[in-house]
Amino acid sequence: SGIPRKKAYLLKVIFIGDPNVGKTSLINQYTNKRFCNYYKSTVGADFMTKSIVIEDKVVTLQIWDTAGCERFHSLGTAFYRGADCCVLTFDVTNNVSFKKLDSWRDEFLIQANPQDPKKFPFVLLGNKIDEKEKRTVSTQRAELWCQKNSNMPYFEVSAKNNVNIEKAFYEIAKTALKNS
Ligand code: GDP
Ligand code: MG
């Protein structure tokens, strides 16, 4: 009797992408509602948690940040192991960070070694859309890349101005839930 219980889920989400694209800022904006212009990069993997309600489920996201050791092969298997969703992040003012998405995706699949690599859920975030004059990667170019990658969901965000962050993380949580 009484109030129906919601089912609880603990899901692991990992953020990868080139240094400086804003991974730590996005996670900090979502979990703490804060933005800083400078972050000290700490060494080692680090995670934050935040719970969100999706229909009859309480989803606790365990969000792993690379904490300043983004070089390939330096993150270790503990970082990748058991991920339910991988968030690829680039900076819309930085072409190189966009071109590196293929290698980040491949690196993830090699390290995480999921059961069905073709079906593993990724979400793409294009950050720093507040920097309108400096923008070099168009929406169209990012959307085309997503089309070629199993229609990966794509969000244009700004950690600085808190644009689209809630929406993006809601999709990340739903995507992770599907895979759990
Ligand atoms: P990470 O290395 O990927 O974790 O990137 P950080 O979160 O440390 O951010 C790198 C730099 O970009 C910092 O100086 C941030 O203040 C800045 N930054 C992060 N997000 C944004 C954003 O949405 N807009 C702008 N203009 N700068 C941002
Ligand atoms: Mg960082």
TrEMBL record:
Q: What is this protein called?
A: Uncharacterized protein
Question: One GO CC annotation, please?
Answer: late endosome membrane
The record's GO molecular-function terms, alphabetically, read: GTP binding; GTPase activity
Which compartments is it annotated to reside in? Late endosome membrane
Give the source's domain of life in one word: Eukaryota
Annotated organism of origin: Panagrolaimus davidi
In terms of InterPro entries, this protein maps to:
P-loop_NTPase (IPR027417), Small_GTP-bd (IPR005225), Small_GTPase (IPR001806)
- What's this protein's family per the entry? Belongs to the small GTPase superfamily. Rab family.
Its BP terms in the Gene Ontology are: endosome to lysosome transport; phagosome-lysosome fusion
Give the source lineage, highest ranks first.
Eukaryota, Metazoa, Ecdysozoa, Nematoda, Chromadorea
One Pfam family for this entry, by name?
A: Ras
List the keywords (alphabetical). Answer: GTP-binding, Lipoprotein, Nucleotide-binding, Prenylation
Entries under NCBIfam families matching the protein: small_GTP
For this protein, the record's PROSITE patterns field holds: RAB (PS51419), RAS (PS51421), RHO (PS51420)
